[in-house]
Task: structure prediction
Amino acid sequence: MFTLPVTLPRPADGSTGDECLKVANQPAPADASRLALLERCRAVISDDAVLLADLGSAYDAAGRDADAERVYRQVLELDPDYADVHLKLAARLLARGATADARAHANRASQLLPNEPSVTRLLAQLAQAAGEPTP
Amino acid sequence: MIGRLLFFAARLVAAGIFLMSWAYGVITQSSFAFEQMVKPKLFPFLADFVTWHHMWFGLAYLLSASTLVGEIRSPQTGRTARLAAIGYILAFGAVTAVLVSRPYLASLDGSRDLWVVPGALAPLLWLAAIDHLVFAPRASGSGAATDQRVVLRASIGAALLLWLAHAIRWLAVGRGDHTPMAVIGIWTLTIDLGAALLGYAALTFAAAIGARRARPGAWEHAVAVVFIAAVLAELVRRVILPTLAFTPLDSALIAAPFGVTAALMWSGLRLRTARHNGEGVFRLLAIDVRPVAALALMALTVAAGAIAFDRVEYFDWAGIPQQLVALVEAAIVFGLMLPIARRWTRATPWSMPLLIGPPALAVAMLHALAPANDFITARLTGHAVDPHSVADRSLAADPLARLAAAALVSREPFEVAFYQRVHAVETARWAVAPRVPPTPTPARAAGGTPPHVFILAIDSLRRDYVSLYNPAVRFTPQIERWSNEGHVFRQAFSQYGGTHLALPALWAGRAVPRGWATIFKELNVLEPFINANGYDFVINDFTFEQSLRPDTGRTFLTRYIPSVQTDFCRNVTSLEMHLRGRKSTKPLFVFLAPMNLHILNTRIGEGDETAYAGFHAPYARQVERVDACFGAFISLLKREGLYDNSVVVLTSDHGDSLGEDDRWGHQAFLFPEIVRIPLIVRLPAAYQTRVTTDLGRMTLLTDVAPTLLSLITGRTYDYGMAGGAPFYVPPGDPLRDRRREPALLMSSYGPTYGLLRRNGREMYVANLANLREYAFTLEAGTHRQVPPGDARRRVSQAELVAQIAALQRLYTRP
Result:
C-alpha cells in the first residue's frame, strides 16, 4: 500500500480492556456480584468516576464500609459535582458518627439536587442526630 | 504598457467574477453548505453579489470581450482564432442577455444544479482557447531546456525564505503553545524543504525529458500547465471540498475542471507575454523581472502575506484561507526566485546526481521526521507526546507547511469499515432526506395560563468565559448575580459544532440529521407548543425561522439587520419596544440568538489586553457587553412585571476555539471548547418546589425543549436515544442517567463526529476530513488531549456507530 513519506503511527495503550471501558456504561450494580470485575477495572482505569462510584456502591453492599468511604472520596476528587456520591458518602459518614463531615457532603448534595427527597431525609436524620429541629 | 496593464486588469476582473459565480455554484451543490452559509446571509457581500449577479456577469462579459477586439482586428490572427473570438462575443453576449432578463444565480435554492459549475468555467476556458490559438503558434518554444541548478536554487531559496518569514511571524504573534520551538522549527523546515525538493524533482525530471525533444520550451510549458492544474485540483479536492460536506466523487468531479481551467487561463495569459529569447526556465512559473526588482517584490510579497494571514484567520474555515494565501505567496516567491537564480547560475551540463540527490535527500529527511520527533520531543519535554498532536501544533505555525503536509504526512487511517460507516452518514438518504419520526404532540399547559418563556441562545458563548464556570472571569457580574435565583448546570454540552444543527436540535428536542430543514415543520416541538398555548411569539433567528410554519404568528425583532450583525443589546431594546406596543396580555415566548460573540465579530477587534488578561480580549469585551445587556434584559422583565412568572434559559448553541493550538472558530471540527456551553435556568417560584434536578450530571442542548414541555404541561417528554430528556423531574422521579449514556457529537460542516462519555469527562473525535482521531479528558474548566489508545478507540468507535444507528433508525423511511 502506498504511504506518504512522513508516517505517523497510532499510539496504542494496549493495557486498557474494552470490558473495563464499557463497564461504566452498564446500569449501576447495587450488589457485590460485580465487585471482582470493578476492582480489576479500577486497576486499569483509575480515573473513571462512574466506575469508582459503582465500586463504592458494591463495597457498601458488601459491608466494606471503610473501602466504600475511601472510594467515594476518590470519586469526589475526580468529580466534585457527583451528587449521588456526596449523598452516599454523607450517609456512610453519618452511620459512623462523623456528623460534621456528613453534613458538609449532605449540604453539597442538597445544592446539586434541589428538592430531592432522599437529600431532605438525610438532612433530617443529620438534624435529628445533632438534636436540632428537623428541617 | 498602459494598454497591456488595462488588458490584464480587464481579464483578471472578468476571471474574478466568473470564478465567484463558480464558487457560488459549488456551494449550491452542497445543500448543507447552502443552508449554513447562504440562507442566513453569513457573508453579506456574497448575498449582494448573487442579487446583482446578472449585472456582474454583464460587466465580466464586456471586459473580457473588449480584450478580444485587438485579436479580431489583427491581420496576424488566424482564421480559427478569429472565429473563436467572434464566437465568444456572440455566444456570451446571448448568455448575458438571457441572464439580465432572467437572473439565474439568485434563483438557485440549494438544490443540486448541474449547469452553473461548468457553466461558470466555460467563458474562462473559451478565452484560454483563444489565447492559445492566437499566441501558441507565435511562440517558438524552441528555447533551451531549463538548467536544473536554476530550479534547485530557486526551490531551496523560496522554501528557506518562506520558512523564515513564517517563523518570524509566528514568534512575533507570540502564540501560547506548549510545543518546544525547536520541534516546531524541525517540523516546518523539514516539510517546507521536503516539498520544495520534491517539487524540484518533478520539474527537473520534466526538463530532462524536454531537453531530448525538438522543442524543449513548448514541452516545459505543457508540463508546467499540467503541474499547475494538478496542484490546484488537488488543493480543491483534498483541502477545500471535504470541509463543505462533499463526497470524494463529487470533490473530484468539481476539482479537476477547475484545476484545468485555471491552469489553461494562466497559460494563455503567459503566452501573450512570452519573449522567446531562447531561455527555458519554465516560463509559465517565472516572473520575469530584474533581480533587484525581484528581491524588492519578494520582500513586499512576504510582508503582504503576513498581513493577509492575520486578516483571513477570522474566516473560521479550518485554516483553509491561510493555506490559500500561503499557496499564492509561495507561487509568487518561487516565480521571483527563478530569475534571481538564473542570474547567479552558470550554465552547466545536465547532471544525473543532481536529479536524484535532492529528492532522495528530501525523502530521507521526511522519513526521519516522525522518529526524530518522538526522540526530540521526549528529550525536551521529559515524556512521550502524541506525534499527531505535535504535528498539528507545529504545522499550525506555518501555513505553507500545513498545506504541504496534506500531501506529505500520512495519518494512519481509520479502520475501513468504521470510516465507510461513518462517512456514509454524509450522503445517506436518511440524513439528507429524513422521514418524520413519531413526535408526540405537545399539550396545553397544566393549570391554565403558562409562564412566560425566554430562551437566550447566545451564539458561540463559551462556558469558561462566564464567571460561574471560571472564577478567573471578572466580566460577567450581571449573569453571576442573576444566577443566585436559578440553577447553574455544571456539565452542559452542545452536541454540535455549529449553529446550523444546534438550534434546530434545540427546537426539535432531538439530534437532527443534516437534512433537518426538509422535515422541520413536523420535527419542531416548541412551535406547536407555542401555538397550542397561545403564546405571543417573539424571535430573532436566521437559522430555522424560515422553516417555521407560515401561519405561526410571530414578531421578528430587527429583521433587516443581517444575521452576523445581530446584537443582544439591540435585541433587548427591540423587545422593550414590542412589550410597550403590544395590546394583548398573552404569555410571551421569546427566542433570541444574538451574534455578538461569533468569530466573525471577535477574531479581530478592540479589547483591552490588560483588562482581559488571560482571555481573548476582543471576545471578552463582547462577553462583557452581552453581560451588561443581560442585566438590562432582567431589569426590563422586572420593570414590566413579567419576571416572577418567567422561565429564563441562558445558554449558547456552541462554544468556539479562540486560538487553542492556533484553532479559531467552530465549523469543521470538534474540540472541547466548542461543545462545552453554559446552561443557567431560572424557574418561576411556583415551579421551583415542584421539581428536582442534578446540576452535576451531563445536560445536553437537546434537553431544553423536552424540559420546557414537561415542566409546563405536567407530562413527561423523553425522546429516547438520540433524543433529549427533561432535566427537571418531579421530586423522587429518576432523571435520564446521563452519567452513563454517551452522547453523539457532530460538526457543522464536514465529516467530523465525536462522542462524549463518562458524564462529559471523556471526548473522542473522529475527523474523517483529515483522517484524525482525538481523545480528550475534560476536567473542571480545562481539558487534556490524550492518545486515543486502542481500547478507547474500539469502544468509542463502537458506541459512535451505535449512536449513528439510533439516529438512522429514527429518521429512516419505513
About this structure: Residues 65-78 of chain A form the longest helix (14 residues). Chain A has a mean pLDDT of 83.
